Amino acid sequence: QVQLVESGGGLVQAGDSLRLSCAASGRTFSSLNMGWFRQAPGKEREFVAAISRSGGGTHYADSVKGRFTISRDNAKNMLYLQMNSLKPEDTAVYYCAADFNPLWVPVTSQRSSYYDAWGQGTQVTVSS
What we know:
The chain is mainly β.
């Protein structure tokens, strides 16, 4: 099993930046492909970004490409999401997730059903 704890959310204005963090424990972090998802009120959970075990592969939703950057520090068991040029439509609860399958396939990294463990989420609110 793996435990995931997100942090770094908050209330910001449009155009601001935030960096989310996800601390992992309980399993070898470098063996996990990782992802960020988000869920806005009344909407389904949607894919944001994913990163391979080594960090050499990344994949983004079109809605955040060029504004968000996913990264990881395997030595610290940490996953990050740098969010720049935030928009009101980025308002959501953001979740990190771990995929126990060692195979990295970008297209499947978008599917929430492929992930085996989830954090509790951190709220991001962007005001206009």
